[in-house]
Amino acid sequence: MRLSTAVTVLGATLSHFTAAVPVQDSPRQRLLDGKPLPAKYRKNPPNPYRPGFRDPDDSAVDSIGRKLDPLPYRNGDGASVLGPWNRERARQNPDLVRPPSTDHGNMPNLRWSFVDSHIRIEEGGWTRQTTVRELPASIELAGVNMRLDEGAIRELHWHKEAEWAYVLDGRVRLTALDYEGGTFMDDLSQGDLWYFPAGVPHSLQGLSPNGTEFLLIFDDGHFSEESTFLLTDWLAHTPRSVLSKNFRNLPPDIFAHIPPSERYIFQSTHKPGSLPSEFPRGKHVKRSKQKFTHRMLSQPPHNTTGGSVRITDSRNFPISKTVAAAHVTIARGALREMHWHPNADEWSFFLRGRARVTVFGAEGSARTFDYQPGDVGVVPRNMGHFVENVGDEEVEMLELFRADEFRDFSLFQWLGESPRRMVADTLFQGDREAGERFLKAVEDGGKDEVTLPPKGGGGDEVEEGREDEL
Ligand SMILES: *[C@@H]1O[C@H](CO)[C@@H](O)[C@H](O)[C@H]1NC(C)=O
Ligand SMILES: *[C@@H]1O[C@H](CO)[C@@H](O)[C@H](O)[C@H]1NC(C)=O
C-alpha cells in the first residue's frame, strides 16, 4: 500500500483514537514519517472482515494467503451471513464478497476457473475448455487446457479456427503440413509457442519423461474441442469402396480394422524417436518453409520498474496473424498499470500468484475480480483495467488477443503527455496543491507497464488499515 494511502486511512479514522495514543513515535506518527511499523503491526494485521473495520481506500486483502474468510462488511455497513456459505469460493473471491466501494453497475461476470470446466479423460491424457459456453464474455477467443502423458498422441486433425498455444510444462512434439505441402516438425518446451492457421492439419505428442501440458487458444469463443475434424472420424464415415479408390485401389479389407470412431487422445505403441529419425522419407516430402513455432520465454524481456513484459505478435512471429500475446510478470506489491486495449478483448490466463482486477465499463460501471493460477479473465476491448499483485509471490500471466498486433494505452503516459492545465482543471480544481504534486509525478513518467511504487512513496511492508489496533 502506498504510504499516502495508509496515512489517509489512519488520518480519516484515527482521529477519535489520538487522545489515547502518545504522539511521539506512535504508529501513526511513524507512518507519517515514513518509518517502518513495529513488527507487531506488520506480522499480525487484524482481520479486516469485521463490522468495525474501515478502509475508505479499498486496499486489497490477500484472503487466501492470510487464510481469512471474507464477509460482507464494509466501512460500517453490511451484516453477517446466516444462510449456506461456500467458504472456499468466498476466500477465492474476496472482492465479490466485499466489493471495493468504487464498484458499481451491471458489469457481467469476467472470471472463470479451468477447475470448473468439465474434463474429458482419455487414454494417457485429458482436456478441458473455457469457451463462450463456460464464460459468456469469452466471445473472441476460446481456451483449451490439455495434458498428454509421455507418448500420448492428440490425433491427426484440423479445425475451422486458427490455433495458438503456450507450453505450460514438459515437452511436446508437433507435426503439421503447410499450405504448400511442406512437412513441419518441431519439439517444444515450457514457454514455447505454436500457431497453426485455420485448416492446417497437425498432431501433438507428449515427450519424455512426463509428457506435457499446454494452453491452446482458438480465435473464436464458440470453438469446441468436440468439433475438430479428426482423421479417424472421417475415415469411419467414408464408404470403404471410396477409401479403397482414394488410396491406390488397395483392397477394401485393408480398412476392415480401422477405428470405428474417433480416437482423439490415445497412447502410442512406442516412444517417439528423435526428430530426424521420425521425419517422413517419401520422395515427394519437402521441409516446410513456415515457422509455426516460437520461443516466447527466450525473448529478452522488456523490464519495467515492477516486472517484465514479453510481447509476441505478427511483428516477431509473422505467422500469428490472428493471435497477439503478452507474457507479463508482476513483482510483489506491483501493479500492471491502469490501461486499456483498443483493438481486441483481452483473454487472460493466470500462471502464478494472486491478483485483483477492476474492470471499468463506462456509465459508472466497474467490477472487481480476483484471480489465481488456472483462472481465466476477460476484459472487453477499450475497458480500463489494472492487475494488482495482492499475494506474497510474483504474478505471472498471459494476455491474449484476437489481433495481429498487441496494443495498449497507458493512463499514466496519457496524463503525463497531456497539457498540464487541462489535467489540473479536470481533476484538481478542488485542490491546486494536490494537482501540482500529481503533475510533477506524471510529467516525466512515461509508460511503465508494470509499475512498482517507489520506496518512500510507499512500501509493501505496510499492511492495510489496522486502525482500531493502533
Ligand atoms: C515425473 O512425474 C513424477 C510423478 O508425478 C514425478 O515424481 C517426477 O519428478 C516427474 N519428473 C520430471 C522430470 O518432471
Ligand atoms: C531484465 O531483467 C532480467 C532479470 O532481472 C535481466 O537478466 C536482464 O538483463 C534485464 N534486461 C534489460 C534489457 O535490462
Summarize the structure.
Residues 27-59, 442-470 are annotated as: Disordered. With 470 residues, the chain is of the alpha+beta class.
How does this structure look, described?
With 470 residues, this protein is α+β, with helices and mostly antiparallel strands. The chain folds into four domains: 13-97, no CATH class; 112-292, Jelly Rolls (Sandwich); 295-411, Jelly Rolls (Sandwich); 412-453, no CATH class. Helices cover 16% and strands 30% of the residues. It is built from eleven helices and 28 strands. It has helices at 3-13, 27-32, 39-43, 87-92, 94-97, 231-236, 240-246, 275-278, 411-416, 420-427, 432-443, and strands at 73-74, 77-78, 111-113, 119-122, 125-130, 142-148, 152-158, 163-170, 172-177, 183-188, 192-196, 202-206, 212-218, 229-230, 265-267, 293-295, 302-304, 307-312, 324-330, 335-340, 346-352, 355-360, 366-371, 375-379, 384-389, 395-401, 409-410, 450-451. The chain has a seven-stranded antiparallel sheet, with no helix packed on it. 35% of the residues are buried. Residues 300-301, 303 line the site of one 2-acetamido-2-deoxy-beta-D-glucopyranose (NAG).
